[in-house]
Amino acid sequence: MSEKFASYANPDALVSTGWLAENLDTPGIRIVESNEDVLLYDTGHIPGAVHIDWRRDLNDQLVRDYIDPAGFADLCGRYGITPETTVIFYGDKSNWWSCYALWVFHLFGHTNCKILDGGRAKWSAEARSLTREVPKLEPVSYPEPPARLDGEIRAFYEDTLAHMIAGLPMVDVRSPGEFSGEVTHMPEYPQEGVLRGGHIPGAQSMPWAKAANPDATFRTADELRALYAGTLGLKKDDDIIAYCRIGERSSHTWFVLKYLLGYEKVRNYDGSWTEWGNRVRSPIERS
Amino acid sequence: MYPPPLQELIDLFSALPETERREMLINMAETAPLHAPAEGQTFDLEDVRKDEECTDTVGVFLTAGADGAVSYKISLGPQVQTLTRAMTSILCQGLNGSSPLDILEVPADFVPKIVGAELVRLRSQTVYYVLTRMKSAAKVYLNRLRTAAQE
Question: Number of structural domains, chain A?
Answer without folding.
Answer: 2
